[in-house]
Amino acid sequence: MKIQHWYDQTTGTWTYLVADLEAAKALVIDPVWDYDPVSGISDTRSVDQVLGYAEEHALSIEFVLETHAHADHLSAAGYLRERTGARIGIGEGIRQVQAVFNQILNLASDEPCGQGFDRLLRDGDRLLLGSLEIEVIHTPGHTPDSMTYLIGDVAFIGDTLFMPDFGTARCDFPGGDAAVLYDSIQRIFQLPEETRLLLCHDYPPAGSPQPRMMCTVAEARKHNIHIKDGTSREDFTAMRKQRDSQLKLPKLIYPSLQVNVLGGCSPEPEDNGVAYLKLPFNRTLASILQDN
Question: pTM for this one?
């Protein structure tokens, strides 16, 4: 197994390519589609690095796996599918995420929830990539569709945990639940201590060392500032709710979710041939949810 990684400094996001070199097959986890919210223009410079690596090493990209529908960056899954024929997989909880944001943004959709993806994954599913087996573990709490992908002694855990000095994911998005996140983290903590946890994000402060992408289960259980061995469910839930109440929404939440709930595809053009992204005017996400 070969793992290659890229870091997008703008959004603090790690993208991974996992390959079975003997079979010349690969999968990509959490690819980034670069987007400028001021101009509304996107480009593919980040994901083109992934494609360039695959082409250089004669790898066929078979799957694009999303750890969840991201709210802080646009997914390039659709672009990868278009270029390579790869199948896009995400947790089946995406149906709930799609339904909520279709309602919040008043998006007209005659398609059943789940559209945009080739495979809706469930806890316990297994995918094969050459000789590599990918075990799917449902780890909700941050979002209802959050998944961990376990390949050998490596677990790609999305936003469930961050580096020990940064803590854990927020739980105040629709469908999030701090108590559920606690239970999901306990599942991760039950993996062998030497298991490497590969993260979706790192946000090092200015002047600090380079962003990090990995810690072990043992390190997380001992040093995570939000949850470690001995942290109770009640204490974690109270901490997470108090902390989340002070957080601002991610800058790209509205454009990200309109693209990401469709598998990283842009909205359909309107009758003038232009595709648009919607933004609520003078309304908070919480107030819209209350009304609905």
Answer: 0.94
